[in-house]
Specification:
Length: about 150
């Protein structure tokens, strides 16, 4: 829990001071996140593989709605989509690593319930991930986008 709260606090502080930079150079940040995720897949255990980094991004995205109005909320809202995309990238790394682990130890079909819930959650979040990109969002109808997000 301490790791999650510390990472979330770190993202909030970085977001507050660098939200314009994050929004302007988001593609580079996504590429860096993918590279870091790919590197972490080769390692045994780290905070990315365990899902802490991805979950901390999602905590930031989810709690943005309850922050009081002000400069902090403005900076969080400005980069909410970017934070969600980064969160999904790191959660996908966690899911891929755990899936590979389950295949190595032959418990894919006899795994615990939380394993299957995690795979289902990753699948449910995939459409949200893809529709968070502005290129795709512009091609969608606003009502369709909102329905998809509410449904997920």
């Amino acid at each position: 829990m301490t790791i999650l709260l510390s990472l979330s606090a770190l993202w909030i502080v970085l977001n507050f001071f660098f939200f314009k930079f994050i929004h302007k150079y988001k593609i580079y940040l996504f590429v860096i996140a993918i590279v870091i995720g790919a590197i972490s897949l080769t390692q045994e255990v780290n905070i990315i593989n365990l899902g802490y980094v991805g979950l901390s991004f999602f905590l930031l995205v989810m709690f943005t709605g309850v922050v009081d109005k002000g400069r902090l909320k403005k900076s969080l809202i400005a980069t909410r989509a970017e934070m969600a995309i980064l969160g999904y990238i790191f959660i996908a790394v966690h899911g891929i690593k755990f899936l590979a682990f389950s295949l190595d130890f032959n418990f894919l079909f006899s795994g615990p319930l939380y394993f299957y819930l995690g795979i289902i959650s990753l699948a449910i979040a995939a459409p949200l991930f893809f529709t968070s990109f502005m290129i795709i969002r512009k091609k969608m109808n606003g009502k369709t986008w909102k329905k998809l997000h509410k449904f997920s």
